[in-house]
Amino acid sequence: MTSKATGTHWPAEFRSALEGFCRYLTAERGRSEHTVRAYESDVSKLLDYAAASGAGSLQDLDLGVLRGWLGELSSGGQARATLARRAATARSFSNWALREELISENPALRLKAPKKEKTLPGVLRSSQLNELFKTLEAAAAEGDPVALRNRAMVELLYATGIRVGELTGLDVDDLDPDRRTLTVLGKGNKERTVPYGLPAALAVDDWLRRGRPGLATGDSGPALFLGRRGGRVNQRQVRSVVAGLLDTVPDTAATGPHALRHSAATHLLDGGADLRAVQEILGHSSLATTQLYTHVSVDRLRQSYSQAHPRA
């Protein structure tokens, strides 16, 4: 039932509601541009379905419409994680519409969707990471600015476990080389301080001394990492760099920058780091999110049990 031209057949209030919801996400919830675009896309698809189903106003956006929308997505082969995310979007939009008195009751209160599977992308083994960093070091040895940048970016992603968007938002002044920490602006505009180790420090220093000056222009500003034309590096460029590197790593399900974040968290826990410390480093608002990593560390728990329990 989805329209080929999104919004072309919507009732007049649909578009103003979508624009108002996006303003709310930006101004009141402090969501990132990337997150707002994702919400906007999902709500647009929902409103497309509602209009094609005969809804003439937001009051017609009832539980049957929401269930029908998710049912169509499920029949189309959408993954459980996607269905769960879109159900959550429908709930957020309905909550907002009720608060704004655009609807008289919330149709999403009884909406159910498949629970998102608690799975994590592949985690790289220490040996695999060692080989990966050897490759980066060999390329950077030639002094090419882009190679120096790539080495520094990957070292920092793994050393800190920060998100790609957090990496690309870093400025030079966000680094404290003496303390080997960086200040990062995370989800919800929450600021946190994250430590990093000596290998990352050396790689970043090398980039700042030998690499960044070769790419910087008058318009580069304070951005820590730059693209080939001197502008701030974007998330797509970072993902491309990391994906290309991981393609060369045999025997791994790791596919992108988030795998470096997951690897960092898993290796911290394997090394005995406190769960709440890892939560703080990663910037998780809920400890339950950080606890997902503990299932990857079963081997560490078994080893601890074997060493500590008298009847092991």
UniProtKB/TrEMBL annotation:
Top-level division of the source organism's lineage:
Bacteria
State its location(s): Cytoplasm
Q: Please cite one Gene Ontology biological process associated with this protein.
A: DNA transposition
A molecular function annotated in GO for this UniProt entry is:
DNA binding
Q: Any idea where the Core-binding (CB) domain is? A: 12-98
Domain Tyr recombinase, which positions? Answer: 119-306
Q: Which residues carry out catalysis?
A: 163, 187, 258, 261, 284, 293
Describe the subunit structure: Forms a cyclic heterotetrameric complex composed of two molecules of XerC and two molecules of XerD.
Similarity remark: Belongs to the 'phage' integrase family. XerC subfamily.
Name-wise, this protein is: Tyrosine recombinase XerC
Q: Which organism is it from?
A: Arthrobacter yangruifuii
